[in-house]
Structure formats: structure tokens, C-alpha cells
Structure to design on (307 residues):
């Protein structure tokens, strides 16, 4: 069944893949953007303009779109700067509240919201389910802010009184426009031999191509009877000791140099060091079972260096 769908954050890396996918499946797509100039080449059915942190503007924009489904892909991350983390945290808290209120007022029946699968606490096995606790007491202030904002987003989406809520916890994104693109910050660092490998490098990353992220959002839009939290990740979670040297090889770069974990944190910052040494992967069994989704790219090994 086709629907009127509003995509907030339509100019982001997932939004740009999602808008044409929704339209190809017959949905009427309205893109909600803050800066119309960034929507060049997006080609939605309709375009509405509002800052997600401006509640009256969001309410007016959503009302004009008359959506049945609202898809929340809002973020402001350009790297992991403190300003970007703070703005994204506000989008995940205040912005989510504004979208939910506007969606309910407009008579929407469903909201699908972007979350992250790697915000879990580093306890338990190497690959965790959606039931694992979030890392709310992270020692890094920026990461603690992020995980608490994620918890607030998920609480609001799942607790919306008049909306069926789905939370998609995306794995570590790669593909066009991401940090892992050849021209992205991480891709460039690996290509130049500037991303060292901590010892031990036991952190597990669950990767996800942006096209598979968009496909998961499509499935969530179309699965009317499903609600809840879903990890969205490929089938090949990998320790840093595996994926980082392989990524370098695929890029034709020198193998990463090995450094003690304590030195890695000083060189790379807490979050990157955490990813490489302690992060947990994400199991995708629930989304396979309940949303009938599976990754078109089952392993990062085939495309991590290709896009």
C-alpha cells in the first residue's frame, strides 16, 4: 500500500538514498529541509522548509504535507566535533519532540526514526541485541551526551500516544557521503596510513551500507503492524584487528601501525579509541524476522573501499 511520506533530514546521506527509493515504490514523498539550496538533485514530490528546532515552523510544514508516515533522519554530524554532537543531540531530543507533536496534529499514523546500533555499553559478548543497555555512563562527555539523546529519542518515539513507532538503530555507515568514503575523513586517514591500530584491537564494528539503511527505512514505512527497536547492520561484524588492516589493503594503503591502547586514545580521541578497542557489534536477527529485511551487501569487505 502506498502512502504520503514526509522525510525529515532528506538531504543527509540516508535521506538522499531514501527519497528516490520511496518514490520508486509509489509513495508520495515530501522532503522537509532546513536549507532549500541543499535539496538540489533530490527530486521529491514536494518540498517544505523548516528548522527542526523551531516547533511552530515544523508544525506548519508537516501540516501542509499531510503525511501518513513521518521518517526522522535528522542529524548534524560532519565528523565528531563537539558542536556537531551537541546540535545532533538537540535534534534527537527537541527535534524529535517537535516532529512527533506535528505528526500527531497532522493525523499521521506512523513514525520511523533514525538511531544508532553502536551506542550500547561495552559489556557482554562481542555482538549484542536490541535489549542490551545503552552506554549512558560513558566517561567521555560527548559520547554520554549522544547516548542520552538516543535514549530520549527512542523513549519519545516508542511512547508516542497516537503514532506507531519504529526505531532503526543503524550500524556504522559507509558509502557515498560518509566518513568511510574514499574522500571521507576516515577513508583519507586510512589511505595515508594515519589511523593506527591499538593493541589490543578487540572493538567490534557492525557496518552498514547507506543503500541498505535506506532499504530498512522503506521496509519500516511499509510494515504497518510492526513497532519497536531494530538493529540494522550487515552480517559480518568484525574486530578492528580484522577490518582496519583489510580496509587499508583494499585502499592500497600501508598496513596500519600498531600502538599501545593508551597512546591510541591520546592520538585519536576517546570515541575512535573506544570503537577500535571496546565497542560491541549489533545482531540483526530481529529486523530480519519482523521486517523481512536483509542486507543487500552482507559484508563490508565487498564495498567498503569501492564507493
Amino acid at each position: 500500500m502506498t502512502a504520503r511520506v514526509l522525510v525529515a533530514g532528506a538531504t543527509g546521506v540516508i535521506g538522499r538514498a531514501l527519497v528516490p527509493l520511496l518514490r520508486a515504490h509509489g509513495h508520495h514523498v515530501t522532503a522537509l529541509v532546513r536549507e532549500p539550496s541543499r535539496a538540489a538533485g533530490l527530486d521529491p514530490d514536494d518540498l517544505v522548509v523548516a528548522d527542526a528546532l523551531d516547533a511552530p515552523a515544523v508544525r506548519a510544514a508537516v501540516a501542509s504535507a499531510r503525511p501518513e508516515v513521518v521518517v526522522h533522519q535528522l542529524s548534524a554530524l560532519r565528523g565528531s566535533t563537539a558542536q556537531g554532537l551537541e546540535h545532533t543531540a538537540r535534534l534527537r531530543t527537541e527535534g524529535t519532540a517537535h516532529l512527533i507533536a506535528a505528526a500527531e496534529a497532522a493525523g499521521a499514523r506512523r513514525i520511523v526514526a533514525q538511531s544508532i546500533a553502536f551506542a550500547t555499553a561495552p559489556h557482554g559478548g562481542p555482538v549484542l541485541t536490541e535489549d542490551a543497555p545503552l552506554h549512558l555512563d560513558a566517561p567521555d562527555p560527548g559520547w554520554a551526551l549522544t547516548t542520552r539523546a538516543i535514549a530520549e529519542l527512542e523513549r519519545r518515539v516508542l511512547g508516542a500516544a497516537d503514532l506507531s513507532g519504529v526505531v532503526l538503530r543503524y550500524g556504522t555507515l559507509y558509502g557515498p557521503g560518509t566518513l568511510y568514503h574514499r574522500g571521507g575523513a576516515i577513508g583519507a586517514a586510512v589511505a595515508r596510513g594515519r589511523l593506527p591500530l591499538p593493541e589490543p584491537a578487540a572493538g567490534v564494528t557492525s557496518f552498514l551500507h547507506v543503500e541498505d539503511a535506506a532499504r530498512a527505512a522503506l521496509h519500516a514505512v511499509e510494515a504497518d503492524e510492526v513497532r519497536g527497536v531494530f538493529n540494522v547492520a550487515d552480517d559480518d561484524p568484525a574486530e578492528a584487528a580484522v577490518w582496519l588492516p583489510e580496509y587499508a589493503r583494499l585502499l592500497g594503503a600501508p598496513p596500519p601501525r600498531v600502538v599501545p591502547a593508551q597512546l591510541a586514545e591520546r592520538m585519536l580521541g576517546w570515541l575512535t579509541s573506544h570503537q577500535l578497542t571496546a565497542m560491541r557489534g549489533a545482531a540483526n536477527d530481529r529486523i530480519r524476522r519482523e521486517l523481512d529485511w536483509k542486507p543487500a551487501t552482507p559484508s563490508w569487505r565487498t564495498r567498503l573501499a569501492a564507493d
About this structure: The mean pLDDT is 96. The longest helix spans residues 82-105. The two ends are 33 Å apart (CA to CA).
